[in-house]
Design goal:
3-stranded antiparallel beta sheet, 12 strands, 210 residues, alpha+beta
Length: 210
């Protein structure tokens, strides 16, 4: 299904809200899922250490940009391989439930717990079909909630872009070990939360402050 038809189907089915990012004028659809309000599009804000999916700027409009973890949290790159706990003031700031990072005003980079809350709405043993869009995946999703996840792939720190059209990864703000952080991953047949290198660049979905 083409992107336009896919989106039209969703806008007719779901009651989307909108937010505007005052930094660049970009607007995003939002959707309520349970008690959470999520952006229903990937962040497109052009920050340092962000990249176009599959290294093609024409992909940004639909797929958003890919960000390293430190870029997502808007913290120095030195924390790619060391805990922000080195700076206890910054560490405590990140722990705030509404820590913004590079999210638009009023939204924030989700925690691992917030991703888990989203996944609690899925069927038992779900393959993630409730979150996958009906377009661009080999195994099209049901997009039950209007989340509209697209397979933007990701970028390794060596500059290689991987799995465009096959996987989606979204940062959480929570670190995992010395050089990793938790992320939500969607493939054509799975969904999980695991740790990956903070130097990888992946997509961002923001959730509204509470």
């Amino acid at each position: 299904m083409p992107y336009g038809a896919c989106l039209t189907k969703n806008t007719a089915k779901f009651k989307y809200g909108t937010i505007k990012d005052d930094r660049d004028g970009e607007t995003y659809r939002t959707i309520q899922i349970g008690d959470q309000i999520w952006m229903a599009e990937n962040l497109r804000y052009k920050a340092e250490n962000s990249y176009a999916p599959d290294n093609d700027e024409s992909n940004v409009k639909n797929y958003g940009r890919l960000y390293t973890w430190t870029s997502a949290l808007d913290i120095p790159t030195e924390y790619t391989e060391q805990s922000p706990a080195k700076d206890i003031e910054m560490y405590n700031k990140i722990k705030d439930k509404n820590y913004q990072g590079i999210a638009p005003k009023g939204f924030h980079i989700p925690s691992k717990k917030e991703w888990e809350t989203l996944l609690s709405n899925l069927e038992a043993k779900s393959d993630g079909k409730e979150l996958r869009s009906a377009c661009f995946w080999q195994n099209a999703g049901d997009d039950t909630f209007g989340f509209f996840a697209l397979p933007a792939g990701y970028r390794f720190d060596n500059g290689n872009f991987c799995h465009f059209g096959r996987r989606a990864r979204f940062w959480s703000k929570d670190e995992y070990g010395k050089a990793n952080a938790f992320r939500l991953s969607l493939t054509n047949n799975s969904v999980d939360i695991e740790g990956v290198y903070r130097s990888d660049a992946v997509s961002i979905r923001c959730v509204k402050n509470v």
